[in-house]
Design brief:
The chain is α+β, with helices and mostly antiparallel strands. The chain is built from two helices and three strands. A three-stranded antiparallel sheet has the order 1-2-3, covered by helices on one side.
Length: 85
């Protein structure tokens, strides 16, 4: 599991690549990681959303979205986050 400095590094490296971009599609590979909303609803809500900024809160990565909502991601045990361009 990544520690705080690793998460901070990931946010710093990732932010310039994704800030200002818009979600075109999405796939939830592990539905058990979600409580609410479900996988289909999450993808529907994300598609078309602009990523305004990235930040870190503890070991969580926060994607601040144009709607004022945030997508919160925890890297889990692997410390990996895959983004398709």
């Amino acid at each position: 599991m990544p520690e705080l400095p690793e998460v901070e590094t990931i946010v710093g490296d990732l932010a310039p690549q994704v800030e200002g971009r818009v979600f075109q599609e999405g796939t939830v590979y592990w539905a058990g990681a979600l409580e609410e909303p479900g996988p289909d609803e999450l993808v529907r809500e994300l598609v078309g959303q602009r990523i305004e900024s990235l930040s870190r809160r503890g070991k969580y990565i926060l994607f601040e979205l144009g709607s004022g909502q945030a997508l919160i991601i925890h890297l889990g045990m692997t410390g990996r986050l895959y983004i398709s361009q």
